[in-house]
Amino acid sequence: ASSRRHLIVGNWKMNGLSAGSLELAKAVAEGARDVGPAARLVICPPFTQLAAVAKALEGSKVQLGAQDCHQSPSGAHTGDISADMLVDLDVGFVILGHSERRQHHHETDGLVQAKVKAAEKAGLTPIVCVGETAQQRDEGHTLETLGEQISKSLPKDFSGVVAYEPIWAIGSGRSASVKEIDETISHLHDVIGRHLDVDDKSVSILYGGSVTARDAASILSIPAVGGVLVGGASLSAESFLGIARAA
Ligand code: PEP
Q: Which residue's C-alpha comes closest to atom 2 of ligand 1?
């Protein structure tokens, strides 16, 4: 626990039908009443549940996020969702460049940057994910990989949030250590200071990768950490709120 404000973001990924999503959102909204002001909560359901979840969150302090958006404002893009469409549903945040999209949808740093610009123009706060593979870490290329992702995925006047998510830690049950998180996120702040035209302290950097209620307090006590991005543990209100209470 500290006096800083932490962003606690839940990424539901491709999980949730109507009934379960509503139940989960309501439980988070209700439980959030007992979470102190040190935690700012955001949940990111799949597109199909955004409208219903927005209603369930009305009057609560939990904010709504999406998991992706298209880089164009509108047009011939079958199956895609624009940033304005998200704003229209009271969405305030959007996760961009998640490693699952970089891997499975071949999203490049350049595409991620185009999406970031579109999101910011529409008034959304982008949460831009970067992270190294196990192989890149083993070969000693972590900082170089992340530096490249940061400098190519973020516009010079970036005003959103970054999430450091080592790919080997996502869904693996093996979170990065406090030392690894501290060193890497401190380095990312340096890279932001060097490559962007913004004060590096103005960019909050979250950690993501197998965060649970058990290790949240130690991660959130790292001064360089601005919050956490939570996948698996955000599908249980109990676990997600447990993480928020550690802020
Ligand atoms: C994620 O994919 O953003 C994530 C952090 O997942 P998990 O918490 O399940 O590792």
A: 231
